[in-house]
Amino acid sequence: MWAYRLVAPYTFERLDVPPKTADDVSDGHVLLRFMAAGVCGSDLPPFRGVRGKIAGDMGLNAAEMVGFPVHEVVGEVVASRHKDHRVGDRVVGWASGFDGLMGFVVADGDGLAPYDPGLSASHAVALQPLACVLYALEQLELAGRHVAVIGQGSIGLLFSYAAKALGARHVTGIDPVDRDGVGKEFGVDTIVRATSDRWVSHLEPGDQPDVVIEAVGHQVATLGHAIDAAAPGGTVLYFGVPDDDSYPINMRAMLRKNLTLKSGVTLDRRRVLDAATGFAKDHPELLAAYVTHTFGIDDVQSAFDLACRPVPDRVKIAITA
User: Fold this and answer.
1) Are 144 and 246 part of one and the same domain?
2) What totals of helices (H) and strands (E) does the chain contain, helices first?
3) What is the CATH number of the domain that holds 175?
4) Nearest 10 degrees: CA dihedral of 106, 111, 114, 117?
5) What average pLDDT does this structure show over 185-199?
6) Looking at the 3D structure of the chain, how many domains does it have?
7) How many whole angstroms separate alpha carbon 212 and alpha carbon 147?
8) Does 236 share its domain with 305?
9) CB of 125 within 8 A of CB of 74?
10) Per residue in 243-299, pLDDT tens?
């Protein structure tokens, strides 16, 4: 079967490997025929060559793990040892081994759910990041609040859209990439084209948001900017993926402003994938606006190259069989 692996920074190699079969499926897992994948911001540090904490990421110049680093996947079940999934089902969710870039993928069935058959595979793959966003927003009080989202990449724009749809009074989106062309479509009331340090340094006390969502990750600075920006009594949600074990934060600001800091990974995945399907049905314009670029499996390198460039009209990138 076809598969990809990272052999050097910014460099995929396509290869043929023995296909996975039903014999590779353990209890609770399923075997999927690849239909589509999404490129996530958390995939980009491994693409650049950064060594992560995934078991097996042991290559000299890059991970060299087959199928790595993709985890957003849509597939057809071809073998199942999970009670909720049957052969022939089409499902969306997590490639639990972070190995979704191959023709057949073994995945934990608890992280998969069926989706509306009327959706194309490229649109269905967007339900996985949407599920993550909805789970995170369940932890927050949004109704009538001013919400700021630092980072208006594909996940940050989803946060902006969902926050507004769930009752936020005002949404501010902050990103150095020009999002004037797409921000309003995703519910952003105030589009700030600037880095977060510049934004917060010019923020008047009366304009401080009640909720600040950090949707950047992969460095330590923006969490501090989120804490500085939040209004007294406000909440900071750290969603961006940390590449460092320890983050310095302004504890005096946390204390004096009575702030709440939240973070965490997505749990209860089947439920929130179902919730994402329902949310997409209620907002039928969302997925088509969200998935802006689609590549075939012969163009994986091009898909990731584009994901690394600050292109104003690029939101979500899908890879399809």
Assistant:
1) yes
2) 10, 15
3) 3.40.50.720
4) -70
5) 98
6) 2
7) 6
8) no
9) yes
10) 889 999 999 999 999 999 999 999 999 999 999 999 999 999 999 999 999 999 999
CA distance linking residue 195 with residue 150, whole number of Å: 9
Do 183 and 245 share a domain, yes or no? Answer: yes
In a domain, 87, yes or no: yes
Would you call 193 helix, strand, or coil by DSSP?
strand
Task: Report the predicted TM-score, pTM, of the whole model to 2 decimal places.
Answer: 0.96
Structural contact between residues 34 and 4, judged by C-beta atoms closer than 8 angstroms: no
| Cis? peptide before 69, omega within 30° of 0 | yes
Q: What is the average pLDDT value for the chain, to the nearest integer?
A: 96
Question: Chain-centre distance of CA 138, in angstroms?
Answer: 16
In this structure, is residue 34 part of a structural domain? yes
Helices (H), the chain: 44-48, 121-124, 127-137, 154-165, 196-201, 221-229, 251-256, 269-282, 286-290, 300-307
Tokens read off for 217: 């990750």
- What range does the domain containing 161 cover? 140-263
